[in-house]
Design brief:
MetI-like fold; mainly alpha; 291 residues; 2 domains; single chain; 72% helix; 14 helices
């Protein structure tokens, strides 16, 4: 009799536990759903509003379905800023910067991680210190340097100043520490030079970290506004963020054009991250623990 009561109590406890777990899952999924909607709705509203005119954007109740003004907004935007040239400028600057930064950061990270030389730790500390400098504090010295080099209003002035970015060097150095030193020594014994070891042995093991660095630097350069605004003066050299800022006129603002431009500016970042998000997360986490 007592055993049967014990079994009944165990069954009831098991059912209560199961119900509690299911309730917790439901609450968790509801919370995640609300968070996802809150995160994605601004993007949805931006893309939808890009298909409406300014008057329709601010109408009440708000329009949450696509309109028929997308082509008109694109044509008007192209007339205002020269959309093709602006997109080319942003793509050229961003892709060139990203490739150059990956090469320089990976080589510098490899040197800091695997070469022992006098002052290595002090030099690496100085590199990290540059991350603490406010970008605004560097604007005037950088502009003065670009003016003396006669690089103002050129691609070089936008690309080169941050090509050896401290965060990229730090990220690659942390990942390079995980490469076994015995593997590098074995390659040296086999007759490989340092440059060949770097390209043929070390870099192939760094693909997740390189993908993470590439995504980060692409997003960093694509969305930069202040420095290109300062150093680029002519309309034919402007990038998308700088060109869009010129649409904010004092008399009349066409929000349809602005939201089309914002949508075009956002799409490359969204697509790049969605396609490579696994590599990005893996690359960021792989350098968080030394071992």
């Amino acid at each position: 009799m007592e055993e049967s009561k014990f079994e009944v109590n165990q069954t009831q406890i098991s059912k209560k536990t199961t119900n509690t777990v299911q309730l917790e899952k439901i609450i968790l999924y509801v919370a995640l759903g609300i968070g996802a909607i809150a995160s994605l709705f601004p993007f949805y509203w931006m893309f939808i509003s890009a298909t409406h005119s300014s008057g329709e954007i601010f109408s009440f109740p708000p329009k949450l379905l696509p309109g028929d003004n997308l082509i008109t907004n694109i044509v008007n935007l192209n007339q205002q800023i020269g959309l093709g040239r602006v997109i080319f400028n942003s793509l050229f600057v961003t892709i060139t910067f990203t490739i150059g930064n990956i090469i320089i950061s990976s080589m510098a990270g490899y040197a800091f991680a695997k070469f022992k030389f006098k002052g290595r730790d002090i030099l690496f500390f100085i590199v990290l210190i540059t991350l603490m400098l406010p970008p605004q504090a560097k604007l005037i010295p950088l502009f003065d340097m670009m003016a003396k080099l006669d690089w103002v209003n050129s691609y070089k002035a936008v690309i080169l100043p941050n090509l050896a970015y401290a965060f990229g060097i730090f990220l690659m150095r942390q990942n390079m520490l995980k490469v076994p030193t015995d593997l590098i020594d074995a390659a040296r014994i086999d007759g490989c030079g340092e440059f060949k070891i770097f390209w043929k042995v070390v870099l192939p093991t760094m693909r997740p970290a390189l993908a993470a660095l590439g995504i980060y630097m692409f997003m960093f350069q694509w969305s930069r506004f202040m420095w290109p605004l300062v150093v680029l003066s002519s309309a034919k050299m402007k990038t998308i963020p700088v060109a869009l800022s010129g649409l904010m006129g004092l008399s009349r603002i066409d929000y349809g054009q602005i939201l089309v431009g914002a949508s075009i500016s956002t799409l490359p970042i969204l697509i790049t991250f969605l396609l490579l998000q696994k590599q990005f997360i893996s690359g960021i986490l792989s350098g968080s623990v030394k071992g």
